[in-house]
Write a structure and sequence with these properties.
This protein is of the alpha+beta class and 166 residues long. The chain is built from 2 helices and 8 strands, in the order αββββββαββ. Strand 3 and strand 4 form a beta hairpin.
Length: 166
């Protein structure tokens, strides 16, 4: 009797191996996709929380607002406590939330799909756009809405800053 495998036995073993390997790869791919999705979610949550915290902290130090638009704000504040006021501009540029201090820009957050501001006066009345002159000088609360997207993850944060020095 000859020892060995027949061609049919080899084909059956190969088919079983391919099915097992394919199943293992499918489970690996699902796990990897889930892990990457979690990383995207963690990244945009972290970036949006840091950006929101910084904007609120700086807006509470506002001494005056020079530009109050729906998607941008420029204000004067001493954010680095050196005794000199800085002009700070917050706006979105090409999907990035940008912060400019006296003309020098840094990116606060990437993957920004919406950056929206609303302004309220001392009586909690919503000011209509454009906010100019006396209305701009009476801004007391600035409501910030920040929407960020990365891959299939979206996060929306909203907060308000009381401009106590305004």
């Amino acid at each position: 009797m000859r020892k060995g495998f027949t061609l049919l036995e080899l084909i059956i073993v190969i088919i079983v191996f391919v099915i097992i390997a394919g199943s293992a790869m499918w489970f690996f791919a699902v796990g990897l996709r889930t892990w990457l999705s979690g990383m995207d979610r963690t990244e945009i949550r972290h970036d949006s929380a840091l950006a929101m915290e910084r904007m609120v902290r700086e807006l509470t130090q506002t001494k005056s607002i020079t530009i109050a638009q729906e998607d941008a704000i420029t204000f004067i504040a001493d954010v680095n406590d050196d005794g000199a006021d800085e002009s700070i501009n917050l706006t979105t540029v090409a999907g990035n939330l940008e912060r400019k201090v006296t003309g020098v820009g840094t990116i606060l957050a990437r993957n920004v799909s919406n950056f929206q501001l609303a302004y309220y006066d001392l009586n909690d009345d919503l000011l209509s756009f454009p906010v100019l002159g006396a209305d701009r000088d009476n801004v007391r609360v600035i409501e910030i809405t920040l929407t960020m997207n990365k891959a299939d993850e979206t996060i929306v944060l909203s907060s308000g800053a009381y401009a106590r020095n305004q």
